[in-house]
Amino acid sequence: MAADEPHDHDHDRPAPAPLWHGRFATGPSESLWEYTVSLPFDRRLAPFDLAASAVHVRGLGDAAILSDEEVESLLRALDVVGREIEEGAFGFEPTDEDIHTAIERRVTEIAGDAGARVHTGRSRNDQVATAFRLFCKQAAFDVAVALVGLCDVLLTRAVDAGEAYLPGYTHLQQAQPVLLAHHWLAHFWAFSRDLDRVLATRERLDVSPLGAGALAGSSLPLDPAVAARRMGFSAVFDNSLDAVSDRDFAAELLFDLVMVGVHLSRIGEEIVVWSTSEFGFVRLDERYSTGSSMLPQKKNPDIAELARGKAGRLIGNLTGLLATLKALPLSYNRDLQEDKEPVFDALDQITRGISAVAGMVSTLTTDLDAMASSADNPVAGATDLAELLVRRGIPFRQAHAIVGDLVRRHLDGEEDLVALVRAEPRLGEEGAALLAPGMAVRQRRTPGGGGPGPVSEQRRAAAERLRSDRERVEALAGTALPPAGD
Ligand code: ARG
To answer: Would you say 417 and 435 are in contact if contact means Cβ atoms under 8 Å apart?
Structure first.
């Protein structure tokens, strides 16, 4: 069959598509169908469409457009469809353009004439936006749960790390030693902000578009506010054009997911570096690393690398969606069908990524001696020497130059730094003592800093933050879909 032959080849005359068979004499071409169909990916919206459809049916009952019997029979049909889909027993037809069409088709098969009334006062435009918002609410919740788990892993590592320390880096050059706990907690706070962002986005997107119709509402006595409440939305749209056409909620959630991906990528990069034989700071658990097909000695940090690599694709999802939305005239345009795959993909990648990275981080072993001996390089105390001079009344810029000069002479091979410091009258024995192993990290005393004092305070704050994050997430459990029978 030629590429552009009509889709339905069982009939002499191509069958018109079921949704618009009045207006069209012939059916769609094969190529139109293949290009425009969204069922392969939007079938995961099924539970959300079913919930919204049930609420819509009840609204039609309230408006006396459906009789009580019709309402009952449609609600039962929706239940049956839900079970069929859940059990994998739902028979999709080649004419099902998307999950919404498929559900309506099957409901009509089951409920007969009443099924032909289910789409009254509704368009796929508000229907799709509604199902997708419900999906995003659930997705935000699921990601928040996963993030609580990851934050828990990082906090546990921070607690277990005690007073172990390692070099802190800027420009990936050793800068000042910090507690290992401080390092784990830096990632903790980033993911905790991600969690906060996801919950804030969830709150903003919690608005029902159902009742906006194709773009302008309806002549029928439907009540969008009642439908919104029944679906568990906390608000209802103010403007029908806006309700069916904007996908800022999807872009926003996608950004939040991508930000998680970027944070996973950063931690991934560190694990890659830390697990090299040159650094040797961590050893990955065998369950969270891979081997080489050729090199028998290899143990590779593939999770960490994919956390890094997948960030590229996630960023692509976000820029792709933003580019799709840009310059779309009001209101619905078919371009908007492109909103789902980037969100679905990001959600899947992020949930798997969080789980894999959490597993990798919770099971890796740290080599505290390697970290400490790397951090105990006396030059790491250079700033402390300059600050000792400051306490002795020397302006910092001058102090910086005095210490810099000693470091340069040491690196030029003149003598070791401790001896040079001892010989410098403005530093002397007290200066030399600052360069002793383990001293530098203890000098980081200011709030939020990397030494033992502020870090133990930080551990308390992180534990408190995790407790309240957990509570916020638990309070949302089961809120994405409307409670049955409400
Ligand atoms: N699957 C489509 C979407 O996700 C359904 C909407 C089609 N609507 C229309 N007016 N052609 O956007």
So the answer is: yes
Q: 485 alpha carbon to ligand 1 midpoint, in Å?
A: 28
- Non-local (6+) Cβ contacts of 401 within 8 A are none
Q: Could you tell me the two tokens for 449? A: 């800093």
165, 371 Cβ separation under 8 angstroms? yes
pTM: 0.93
Check if 333 has its Cβ closer than 6 Å to any atom of ligand 1.
Answer: no
3-state secondary structure of 371: helix
| Contacts of residue 93, Cβ cutoff 8 Å, sequence gap at least 6 | 102, 105
The mean pLDDT of 202-217, rounded to a whole number, is: 97
The encoded tokens of residue 96 equal 């099902």
The DSSP code sequence of 197-230 is HHHHHHHHT-EE-TT-TTTT--SS---HHHHHHH
The answer to whether 210 and 56 have CB atoms below 8 angstroms apart is yes
- What are the DSSP E strand ranges found in 275-397? 282-283, 365-366
Q: CB of 275 closer than 6 A to ligand 1?
A: no
For residue 37 and ligand 1, the question of a CB distance below 6 A is answered with no
407-413, Cβ contacts within 8 angstroms, sequence gap of 24 or more: 407/379, 407/382, 410/379, 411/379
Residue found by looking up tokens 């088709």 in the block: 105
pLDDT tens-digit series, residues 353-408: 999 999 999 999 999 999 999 999 989 999 999 999 999 999 999 999 999 999 99
Q: Cα 286 vs. chain centroid, distance in angstroms?
A: 27
Distance of CA 289 to the CA centre of its chain: 23
Ligand 1 atom with least separation from CA of 336: 12
Determine whether 171 is an active site residue.
yes
Nearest one of 354, 147, 183 to 273, comparing CA atoms:
183
